[in-house]
Amino acid sequence: DTGVSQNPRHKITKRGQNVTFRCDPISEHNRLYWYRQTLGQGPEFLTYFQNEAQLEKSRLLSDRFSAERPKGSFSTLEIQRTEQGDSAMYLCASSLRPRDPSGGANVLTFGAGSRLTVL
Amino acid sequence: QKEVEQNSGPLSVPEGAIASLNCTYSDRGSQSFFWYRQYSGKSPELIMFIYSNGDKEDGRFTAQLNKASQYVSLLIRDSQPSDSATYLCAVNSNAGGTSYGKLTFGQGTILTVHP
Fold it and tell me: Do the chains contact at B99 and A56, CB–CB below 8 Å?
């Protein structure tokens, strides 16, 4: 297992175009997360899945963003009608659901990220 | 009030000194606390986590947790230039949602260790 894999690593697009990012998590991990990070800020939560179920989506997230994890393995994050403000690093992470239902030590392992530049 | 706040940086320490990084959080229901390190242009990598009050040591790193004060810190002993990075505090949180399944991150503190 080579860890969390993200593709593409870099994407440059024009405003108004749609883009899609793919994430392949660590194989035995059942949780998958998407975060967004801009320069000088910490990662901002977007959404997460447990197996194929999307359990939570940030209320701040525009309807232009959608994520899927159809078979509980890889996930895609699509951004429609991109805007310049969407320019950021999109990070995917995966984890094992902790045994402790209160949260436990939910250790996230991050991929290298997909950097989006919207012109 | 931000959900997770870290002491403003950047923090600069000489090689061999102790670096102290601080973090406060707002959700009293949070139970797990994490420190990640992020080198420039790279993704975050886990240093350590803690969920019991007190200290937890791992090599040169010590995490300290005080749930009553909603405070968590990271001490780096014998700091090395290779420790120069952004340190991110993260807390499991249900803020804005219905579960504690996600981590909420602070804005990060830039640490520079100079020879």
Answer: yes
